Amino acid sequence: MARPSTHIWRLLKWGRILAKHGALRGIERDPNAPLQVKRLARVARFGTFQPSTPDYATAFKAIGPAAIKLGQTLATRPDLVGEEAADNLLGLQDNLPPVPFSDIEKSIASTFERPLSELFSEIDPEPVGAASIAQVHRAVTSDGRKVALKVLRPGIREQFARDIETYEWAAAHLEALGSDEARRLRPQLTIANFKRWTNRELDLRREAASASELAEKMKGFAGYRIPEVDWDRTNGRVMTVEWIDGIKISKVDELKAKGHDMGEIANRLVLAFLTQAISGGYFHADMHQGNLFVEDDGTIVAIDFGIMGRIDRRARMWLAEILYGLTTGNYQRVAEIHFEAQYVPSYHSVDEFATALRAVGEPMRGKPVSELSVGQMLDGLFAITRDFDMQTQPHLLLLQKTMVMVEGIATQLNPQINMWDTSAPYVRNWVRDELGPEAALADAVKENFSTLLKLPDLLRRVDEKFPPKGGAPEPPPLPHVELIVGPTAPKRRGWMGYIAAAAAGAGALYGATVLGWIA
Asked: How many CB atoms sit inside 10 A of residue 113's CB?
């Protein structure tokens, strides 16, 4: 475990990069940011010349691969980073210069117990894509099949582990400062979820398993498919899947030239996402333009399954009712669900919350996306979360991120698409099937029988005053962080020591920069 001085040095170094791109200005101006954080931001930007317009995406890319992934996560959190930063981070492209093929070839060879010549007859040394975690090469198997070969960057697991440890340290101290806003936004839990997501991406066997599971769940959905995994040529650092010959979904002109119906593809993409998220509870959570292709017959093919999202059945039922209530204007029911799921504390008024939802929802109903002000909508939604003391729900962050991606792609394909009208029939049918009388009766029989079997355990839980579960799953265990600020920090390490360490680190960093040791 790294020492506090190591974390402070890293944070100041990263902070200086952020400052050079004007990315700390928002923190200094945010009235909800803790005073200590603002002071550290000023220390980090000391001696820099900031551009007039902040460029958060470029700053995160300059910091490194883990920051790129973190920036993409923060793009879904305008409540945490601000709307300006979130909009800029949405354009953060996960691409880096490729690793030399000689290093990649050694990495591939070291992961298999057989010579590469027995597995592949050809591997193209030029990658078709190089991201922060892995790069992809075109290859031909020894039996003549065209495949895509995904290989982790050498040393990437160790680099992510170091950086995430510092993220955990910083998040723990942010919450320890005692800010109500920090407690509501729960940065520690956000980083814990980010760690789980990235750990899954760093094991390509799990990505292959994710692709296989999603393919199984989407078998009955025509016009959307997943590439087949070659398990004999897949391990923790290498994944092999069938090669996809298609047009990237972002190349609208090429799709039109091929005669594809843009409106139909847009609708099918939205319904494919709803099928995954609401029906299956398991969805592709990195559905950006670079990960979707359209084949000659119009089939949408998804690739890159490092980030996947799960929603349990109870949360899906709440989600479906919320979406259905918004599409039909039943804001009262939507508000009630938020209280049932314990997303909103019970000391607030259901009726007041319903009125607040109406103020956000009514301007959106019946209009195409091209006529909606996304900025006004987000302002309204996040004002509600703050006004009604709604804590961040990390289990829904991936869903929110993916919904933004899908909406963006669908709008590019068909600017006149109405997301509510497209979603409403599907959600209505699902709600009818899952919440109708027959489904309710079947669920009641199953649940009551299961309850009888668990009666002894239930009695013990009641006796122990075990609290009822809300709309969020149990949070994962958070790492222990030795605090140097906050009520649990050792008295010998006061805040002045923290400032002194930060100032010393800043001074050393500034001196190194002046001397040209740090670019």
From this structure: 6
When pLDDT is averaged across residues 233-242 and rounded to a whole number, the result is 94
**Directed axis angle between helix 397-413 and helix 65-74, to 10°?**
80
The amino acid at 290? G
What is the average per-residue pLDDT within 394-416? 76
CA 239 – CA 103 distance, rounded (Å): 17
Strands 134-141 and 120-123: antiparallel
Which DSSP letter does residue 234 get? -
Is there a catalytic annotation at residue 286?
A: yes
> Closest Cα partner for 405 from 213, 313, 276?
276
pLDDT of 508 higher than 80: no
Catalytic residue among 232, 286, 379, 389: 286
CA distances from 179 to 77, 93, 173, 184 (A): 18, 33, 11, 9
Question: Does the pLDDT of residue 19 top 70, yes or no?
Answer: yes
Rg (CA), the chain: 25
Strand order in the sheet with 247-248: 224-225, 300-302, 292-294, 247-248
- Length of the chain in residues, anyone? 519
